[in-house]
């Protein structure tokens, strides 16, 4: 039985690393492949021959001097876990830049394999890469791959296993000459590091010295453990820095970078790459960008893309949504018919089927939205959005990269604030990051969408797409304004650079888009099946117990008996059919009153009623209050609770009207109540899971702040809308 | 005589060669890691709708940066194609 091997997949963002990971492991996790971020560490298992191989997908990185937390995570994995092989997936189209990272891997002494990815594009550009020569020059195996269709992946793993077995983790670190001054300093520093044993088992001593000259904050901090060593290294580093500033007006770190690129240029000059300069197919992306990022057309296209997405979503999503609604209505009817009347029936029908069904009904819409989002992401359009919007975002104290967390949170409706908040890790400076984390939850996440759709369908059915569009823009506007407010007051600090790659447009693969869509959709369905189910049941219980007191129940019973007696008399007197039907109606009315009284008397009803004094300012009755309080747990609960609340107050078992129709018919609801409720839902406290995410990414203080501040803001805005609106 | 100028002043479709990168610390490191080192040929290929950030092409890829970041980079203009 041979030992399990660990391979790390590393490389620049947009190099096809994640596609390669999926191709190798068949894993189905999605990674937001926006420039620079992989939110979680992902692993997959595969077998090659008789070897089990663990593949770890590292976050995309441009350099081993960490810039973001993701890049630091990638480096720490390489240093601390010492994978048996590091597979550097690089975009062969940008060989020169990509090798910059590869050279740093070699300096670190990592057992490196190069996967020259996207060879299909290289061939299309009539470019040739002499991989044998590259392999000989760099002294590492080089494999040509096309991750999109899996070409070369077996060869890649075979080579990696062979390399790992041959080397047993022992490789000689690459030593580049950095010019006389730096080399002399390194020669001086290397024995000092070696003698002190700093990180001795993990990295080459020369690498530590090099990082020290580069001023890598992480390594400098680490060396402080040995005060004498740190002092000695600092004095050498300072001396070199002073010397090169005097003689060449430059800094050690820039000399090091220059020499690395010089080393790569020298390698490539050996005739590795041959380009047919008459074919410049990369210019196609440029031509598209001339239009897409044009001063006039860019913003118009951006709005058109978003607008088109909603129209598409509603046009396609509504049909299966209707089927699902019918299905859950039918299911409720069946349950009602087959389970004897009583608490258990009420739990199944009102608690579970109406609650969870209300949420699952929106799955088709959300899948279509995710589909569009995954397509735009894989296409490369998201990076353009950051580019187009950076200037504006800067104005509001944010960063172009804040677009990503915003969009993932639901800037294009259907996202989720939890990964959105986590995606803010790409942002380097704490103030911009915090402002993004706190404002991203205003976006129309997948959980708010059902609430929006419900209210829109009830009160603005003819302009559903437009209403959704307005809501989306409103959320952006509020997020930006609040960000500006926060950045001007409680979160002050300088802006960070906007150095970002614009990846060439690439037509997404159907498989990739479907995987991404399904992963996000599945998250939503799972949430409906677990958290929402639990909360539905809890809220059902809160809305059912305690029941009506004996005497109140008795009163309704008496009323019913009286009507039944009258009906009996009339029937014996030979009354007409419709006269008897009138009695039936009166009976149903009594049942309705009883149900409403029972709900009002329940735990949730009492809380809702207690809040009525305050929330009536914004136009909400006690039933809406119950739903909004439930929405603290998860926004989907608003819909399921309204569903439960309104189904408890409704008796006709044949009635499978949609909740929208019931709301529209309810006298307590009008268009301004709906708008007020939309505003409140958009702005108030993030759901519980998001609050936890905010706390993890910042602190509990800020998580508490977001709950209190957002709810106060939401209530103020909703009240304003309702009060002004109803007076018009 | 070669004419050096700030990267900010470079017009769209102009090609230039980087002369000097004066940024230090984190920004400087980031700029260099992305391949903006002396002697690199670049071409300005576009500007965002509000003229900031700019998109430049170097080493077969496209990079964006803000004007105030471009101020740390001086270049020699090679040629400017007609727009």
Set down the secondary structure blueprint:
The complex is a heterodimer of chains A (728) and B (83).
Chain A: E1 5-10, H1 17-25, E2 42-48, E3 51-57, H2 69-81, E4 85-91, H3 95-108, E5 112-117, H4 119-124, E6 127-129, H5 131-138, E7 142-144, H6 153-167, H7 180-196, H8 205-214, H9 217-223, H10 227-248, H11 252-269, E8 273-275, H12 283-292, H13 297-338, H14 343-360, H15 363-379, H16 381-395, H17 403-411, H18 417-423, H19 430-439, H20 448-459, H21 464-488, E9 500-502, H22 510-544, H23 550-572, H24 577-601, H25 603-615, H26 622-631, H27 636-648, H28 659-665, H29 671-683, H30 688-697, H31 700-727
Chain B: E1 4-6, E2 14-21, H1 25-33, E3 41-47, E4 54-58, E5 61-65, H2 67-70, E6 73-80
Antiparallel strand pairs in B: 1-6, 2-3, 2-6, 3-4, 4-5
What can you tell me about this protein's structure?
The complex is a heterodimer of chains A (728) and B (83). Chain A is of the alpha/beta class. Chain A is built from 31 helices and nine strands. Chain A has helices spanning 17-25, 69-81, 95-108, 119-124, 131-138, 153-167, 180-196, 205-214, 217-223, 227-248, 252-269, 283-292, 297-338, 343-360, 363-379, 381-395, 403-411, 417-423, 430-439, 448-459, 464-488, 510-544, 550-572, 577-601, 603-615, 622-631, 636-648, 659-665, 671-683, 688-697, 700-727, and strands at residues 5-10, 42-48, 51-57, 85-91, 112-117, 127-129, 142-144, 273-275, 500-502. Chain A has a six-stranded mixed sheet with strand order 2-3-1-4-5-7, sandwiched between helices. In chain A, strand 2 and strand 3 form a beta hairpin. In chain A, helix 13 (297-338) crosses helix 21 (464-488) and helix 14 packs antiparallel against helix 22. The longest helix of chain A is centred in the middle third of the chain and has 42 residues, at 297-338. The model of chain A is unreliable at 30-39 and 651-656 (pLDDT under 50). In chain B, strand 4 and strand 5 form a beta hairpin. Chain B is of the alpha+beta class and 83 residues long. Chain B is built from two helices and six strands, in the order E-E-H-E-E-E-H-E. Chain B is globular, with a radius of gyration of 12 Å. In chain B, 16% of the residues lie in helices and 43% in strands. Chain A binds chain B through residues 62-63, 65, 67, 93-97, 100, 214-215, 251, 253-254, 257-258, 261, 282, 285-286, 289-290, 293-296, 298-299, 387-388, 390-392, 394, 400, 428, 497-504, and chain B through 21, 24-35, 37-38, 40, 45-46, 48-53, 55, 57, 59-66, 69.
């Amino acid at each position: 039985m041979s030992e399990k091997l660990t391979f790390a997949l590393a490389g620049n963002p947009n190099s096809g690393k994640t596609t390669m990971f999926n191709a190798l492991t068949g894993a189905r996790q999605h990674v937001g492949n926006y420039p620079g971020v992989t939110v979680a560490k992902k692993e997959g298992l595969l077998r090659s021959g008789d070897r089990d191989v663990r593949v770890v997908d590292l976050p995309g990185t441009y350099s081993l001097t960490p810039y973001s937390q993701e890049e630091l995570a990638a480096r720490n994995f390489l240093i601390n876990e010492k994978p048996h092989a590091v597979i550097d997936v690089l975009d062969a189209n940008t060989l020169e830049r990509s090798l910059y990272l590869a050279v740093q891997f070699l300096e670190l002494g990592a057992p490196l394999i190069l996967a020259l990815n996207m060879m299909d594009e290289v061939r299309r550009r009539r470019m040739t890469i002499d991989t044998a020569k590259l392999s000989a020059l760099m002294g590492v195996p080089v494999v040509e791959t096309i991750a999109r269709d899996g070409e070369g992946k077996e060869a890649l793993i075979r080579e990696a296993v062979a390399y790992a077995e041959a080397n047993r983790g022992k490789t000689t670190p690459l030593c580049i000459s950095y010019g006389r001054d730096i080399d002399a300093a390194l020669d001086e520093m290397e024995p000092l590091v070696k003698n002190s044993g700093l990180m001795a088992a993990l990295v080459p001593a020369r690498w530590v010295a090099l990082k020290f000259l580069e001023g890598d904050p992480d390594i400098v901090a680490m060396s402080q453990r040995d005060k004498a060593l740190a002092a000695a290294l600092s004095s050498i580093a300072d001396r070199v820095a002073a010397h090169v500033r005097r003689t060449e007006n430059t800094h050690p770190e820039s000399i090091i970078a220059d020499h690395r690129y010089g080393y790569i240029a020298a390698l490539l000059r050996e005739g590795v790459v041959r380009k047919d300069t008459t074919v410049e197919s990369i210019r196609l992306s440029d031509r598209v960008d001339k239009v897409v990022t044009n001063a006039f057309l860019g913003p118009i296209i951006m709005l058109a893309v978003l607008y088109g997405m909603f129209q598409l979503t509603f046009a396609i999503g509504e049909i299966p949504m209707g089927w699902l609604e019918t299905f859950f209505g039918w299911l409720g009817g069946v349950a009602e018919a087959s389970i004897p009347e009583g608490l258990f029936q009420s739990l199944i029908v009102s608690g579970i089927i109406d609650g969870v069904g209300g949420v699952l009904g929106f799955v088709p819409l959300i899948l279509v939205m995710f589909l569009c989002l995954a397509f735009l992401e894989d296409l490369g359009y998201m990076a353009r959005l950051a580019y187009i919007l950076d200037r504006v975002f800067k104005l509001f104290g944010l960063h172009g990269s804040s677009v990503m967390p915003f969009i993932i949170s639901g800037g294009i409706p259907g996202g989720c604030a939890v990964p959105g908040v986590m995606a803010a890790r790409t942002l380097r400076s704490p103030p911009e990051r915090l402002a993004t984390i706190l404002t991203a939850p205003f976006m129309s996440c997948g959980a708010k969408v059902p609430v929006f759709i419900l209210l829109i369908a009830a009160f603005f059915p003819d302009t559903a797409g437009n209403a959704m569009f307005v809501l989306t823009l409103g959320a952006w506007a509020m997020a930006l304004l609040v960000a500006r407010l926060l950045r001007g007051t409680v979160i002050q600090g300088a802006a960070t650079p906007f150095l970002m790659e614009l990846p060439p447009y690439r037509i997404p693969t159907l498989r990739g888009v479907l995987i991404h869509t399904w992963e996000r959709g599945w998250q939503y369905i799972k949430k409906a099946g677990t958290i929402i189910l639990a909360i539905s049941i809890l809220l059902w219980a809160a809305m059912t117990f305690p029941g009506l007191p004996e005497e109140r129940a008795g009163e309704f019973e008496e009323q019913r008996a009286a009507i039944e007696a009258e009906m009996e008399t009339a029937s014996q007197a030979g009354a007409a059919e419709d006269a008897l039907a009138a009695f039936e109606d009166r009976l149903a009315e009594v049942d309705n009153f009883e149900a409403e009284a029972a709900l009002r008397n329940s735990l949730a009803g009492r809380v809702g009623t207690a809040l009525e004094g305050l929330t009536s300012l914004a136009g909400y009755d006690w039933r809406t209050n119950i739903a909004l309080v439930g929405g603290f747990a998860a926004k989907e609960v608003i819909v399921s609770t309204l569903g439960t609340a309104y189904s408890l107050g409704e008796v006709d078992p044949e009635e499978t009207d949609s909740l929208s129709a019931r709301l529209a018919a309810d006298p307590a609801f009008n268009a301004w109540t709906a708008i007020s409720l939309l505003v409140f839902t958009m702005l108030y406290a993030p759901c519980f899971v998001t609050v936890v995410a905010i706390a993890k990414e910042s602190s509990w203080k800020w998580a508490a702040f977001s709950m209190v501040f957002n709810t106060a803001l939401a209530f103020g805005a909703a009240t304003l809308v309702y009060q002004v609106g109803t007076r018009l | 005589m070669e004419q050096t100028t700030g990267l900010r002043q470079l017009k769209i479709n102009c090609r230039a060669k980087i002369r000097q990168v004066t940024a230090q610390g984190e920004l400087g490191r980031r700029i260099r890691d992305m391949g903006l080192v002396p002697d690199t040929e670049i071409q300005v290929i576009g500007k965002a709708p509000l003229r900031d950030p700019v998109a430049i092409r170097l080493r077969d890829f496209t990079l964006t940066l803000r004007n105030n970041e471009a101020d740390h980079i001086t270049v020699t203009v090679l040629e400017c194609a007609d727009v």
